[in-house]
Amino acid sequence: MITKKIQSHTGHLAAALAFLGSWAFFCFAYPYHLMRREQMNLFLFDGDYIRQTYRGAGWLARFLSDFLEQFFLSPVPASLLVALLLTGIGVVVYRICRHFLGKWPSLAVATLFFVWSFLRETSNLYQTRYTLVVLGYLSCVLLALQCRKGGTKALAGILLLAIGSWALASPFHKHYGKLWSVPKFDYERVIGLDVETSLENWDKVLQLSKVDLYMEEASYCYNLALAMKGRLGDDLFNHSQNHQFTLLFPASSEQTIFTNGMAGEAWFQLGDMTQAEQSAITSLQASPKHTGARFLVRLARINLISGEDEAAQKYLNNLDRTLFYGKWARSMMPGRQDEATRAQLEEARAKLFRKDFVHQSERPREILRGLLEANPDNFMARNYLLCYDLMCYDLDTFMEDYTANMINARLYHEAILIWLSQNNRLTPEQVRSYGVDLSTVDRMNRFGRNPSGQKNTYWYYYLKAMYEQQ
Q1: Which is deepest, 69, 214, 251, 340, by most CB within 10 Å?
Q2: What is the pLDDT of residues 178-216, one digit of tens each?
Q3: Contacts 24+ apart (CB under 8 A), 302-305
Q4: Does 323 share its domain with 344?
């Protein structure tokens, strides 16, 4: 009796396990590529927008996918929705197979279909629309099979599939991605770093960076988080670095959309709105649907800081018609900002260039120096400039840019000792004149005896570079 009862509920148990397993996976192990879909998406609650955007073949699939992806703002709703869709595919396939096969063969086919759909969802370029298309066509087949007469079944099947082709578009399309995928956890972590960086969750970025991925994008996010926490000059080499290339990315259409979107993050925090705006606009143009809430928010903030209220209003008006950004957009409208918001904008404006000239991100040192000319108290720009000098091994330039009374950091003191040693000026008096503690000299002597024991020092970075150049 118990065995029969268990067998009668096998399908329900399998569906429950599939739902819980996929929810847990996407919520805890693989959440960020779902959150990134939300950042690349835009759904406006506006009649004209909906009528203009969602028409023609596939309108229903595009409408539903954009509507659902706006809830991917955090891992819990994102993973719940994806788990429901994937479980739905498994259930519908099982019900279809039961018209032709026994329980266990049907369950096996449904499991294979679920696993295939699940693995496709782990693709970084995959979109929710394609899961909806698969579920929609399978549902049409299941509905047609509910008819009892063979002729009616065939007629219903043709009719439903015709409706499906209009509402869902073709089930096969080159933009649907690869037929098969597997989870790529390292790339998921890099996407996570990018997402948390865009949300300015600096502690979370540093937490994710505890596992060194030895990728430029990962180091870039780590460096920016360090700078925002005021630790760039101390902890830079606690993470892998690829010379100056991991410090600042150029904002250019020649970059991938992923790297180019990242590029604007550092420039925005440094105060270069020109490069930040170029990054956001280029990312919008290169995105699959030429939309993205992340970039509209960035463009609104850039224009507010730059004093371009009319341009900012345009982006804020769009965001005002969204479900989750409307409250923020209304609070940022010119004339409606509270005192704290106005103070933040004024603080950001203090970093802006005072000269109107065209510059290129391929020459980051010139940009950083321009930012410091505009505001010598731009602590972050000073740190980036000094670290840029160090990562280019240019100690003479570093000493020109260094100000002992402004920044007291471990890596800078280590670089000063190298420069003093190279210029035969390594004396206690000279060391103290640059604000370096004599204990740092003792530490450098210990480094000379065992370099591999202090790999997070500038001495190790510089020594390794000199060996590579020989």
Answers
A1: 251
A2: 778 899 999 999 999 999 999 999 999 999 999 999 999
A3: 302/268, 302/273, 302/276, 302/277, 304/332, 304/334, 304/345, 305/273, 305/345, 305/348, 305/349, 305/352
A4: yes
